[in-house]
Design brief:
alpha+beta; Beta-lactamase; five-stranded antiparallel sheet; two-stranded antiparallel sheet; Beta-lactam/transpept-like; Beta-lactamase enzyme family protein
Length: about 280
């Protein structure tokens, strides 16, 4: 074999080893359709529960639009949800993900200017689930329209702003929409904005700004997960406790609703059991 051809073959083998591990791992990972029933069974009959497990999409460079669409379709095929995946839930603090993404998007496109203080406010809103920061961002940057714009950009069909002005925690969404948002974040958002949002999720504080213990559900259960937690009481006499995360390219969405008579401890324990039924990502 000519030396030049040998060099080409060696380079191709080297590139294959560098480029394909994550893709190969995804192919041999436990399928979402196998995970969802186990998660549902582990959660038990503590109130109303919805779960979706999906693979996060990867941004492709080069190639045709058709190839990108085919890749997106393959990723979406690796998504599975429970019977209530399309059932609307109040977001509680999960709406902060939509707010932060939209503000970063508008700043990126020149529609608004962000100061370092603004970015710090977005960060604490995600990492520590700071409510005063969220209220300020909602008012100053038009939270209701932000929710609508995110729903349009990401194709979220079950997401809508709250009916009562300013009550951002009453924004509604579905487990399927949240999974789609997190799965498509790397390909819809600017890479730097997606990295910032996921980085803040990856450094969530164990205790929220209001003193609520955030270490339940996905947080602390899946190794290295980037997470966002949500809790609220008591809309229509119900407690809402949610946990979403990304670990090893896998998206996990857990939304729960329990009667007010069911305490936080019981709701947290059920979400902990549900998250524990999700196998660790391949290679972790």
């Amino acid at each position: 074999m000519p030396p030049a051809l040998v060099a080409v073959v060696l380079l191709a083998l080297l590139l294959a080893e560098v480029v394909t591990p994550r893709r190969a791992a995804a192919e041999h990972d436990v399928a979402p359709a196998e995970i969802v029933p186990a998660v549902m069974a582990a959660h038990g009959d503590v109130g109303t529960f919805a779960v979706v497990v999906a693979r996060q999409e990867e941004r492709l460079t080069g190639g045709s639009i058709r190839a990108a669409e085919a890749h997106s379709a393959r990723v979406q095929a690796r998504t599975a949800g429970s019977e209530l995946a399309d059932r609307p839930f109040p977001t509680a603090s999960l709406v902060k993900l939509f707010l932060a993404e939209d503000v970063l998007h508008r700043a990126r496109t020149g529609a608004l200017a962000l100061t370092p203080e603004d970015r710090a406010q977005l960060e604490v809103m995600i990492r520590s689930s700071n409510d005063p920061a969220a209220s300020d961002v909602w008012v100053r940057f038009g939270g209701a329209q932000a929710v609508r714009d995110v729903a349009t950009r990401y194709g979220l069909t079950g997401t809508a702003p709250p009916l009562r002005w300013g009550q951002w925690g009453e924004t509604t969404t579905t487990a399927a929409d949240l999974a789609r948002f997190l799965a498509r974040l790397p390909v819809i958002a600017h890479p730097d904005d997606a990295a910032a949002l996921q980085g803040w999720m990856g450094t969530a504080t164990p205790v929220a700004s209001d003193g609520f213990d955030q270490q339940y559900g996905v947080f602390g259960t899946l190794p290295g997960a980037a997470v966002k937690q949500g809790w609220m009481c008591c809309l229509s006499g119900q407690r809402h406790l949610h946990s979403v995360g990304i670990a090893g390219g896998r998206v996990v969405v857990l939304l729960s609703e329990v009667p007010r008579s069911v305490g936080w401890d019981a709701a947290r324990a059920a979400l902990d059991e549900a998250a524990a039924a999700v196998p660790p990502p391949t290679g972790s």
